[in-house]
Design brief:
Distance between the termini: 44 Å
Number of helices: 9
Mean pLDDT: 77
Strand content: under 5%
Radius of gyration: 19 Å
Number of domains: 2
Order of helices and strands: HHHHHHHHH
Helix content: 55-70%
Amino acid sequence: MLDWLSRPWPWYVAGPLIGLVVPALLLAGNRSFGVSSNLRHLCAALLPGKPEFLGHDWRATGAWNLAMAAGIAGGGALAAFLLRSGEPLLLAASTRIDVASLGIAPPGAGLLPDEIFALGALGTVRGLIVIVAGGFLVGFGSSYAGGCTSGHAITGLANGELPSLIAVLGFFAGGLAAVHLLWPVIS
């Protein structure tokens, strides 16, 4: 009965659902959306006023955003544990060849390659660069850009904001540079 939930949804269903986030936020009185600001809101809730950067009213500005982040985590857990089909991820043959050329085995039953995301990978130089340094750079970059990819790409572009367009172009250029220039060096 719920078999359709364990299969990937086509782009023409998932895309409009993501697109409806912007009108829903506007109807709720919010003009911004993003995930990266949740860490600041969570820290402000747990450590009010220390340091000064965290001394904002997270209930007024971030409670709905924290609820959304909890929904993302809950939805991801629901999909990972209850809705998975157990079948390997379907990838095009050309994608499998490209991924293998980067030294990464195509994913089997999971979505994430063990060479990068397994706990043991943190003990390698490549793992430290990818997870720790990459995570720091993503955090710094989203703070410097005034938002993350979801915030800029979904609501910033929908609001017609030039800084969001510049940020999104920078995100994509950085991702392409990391895969094609940095990854071959550290693998």
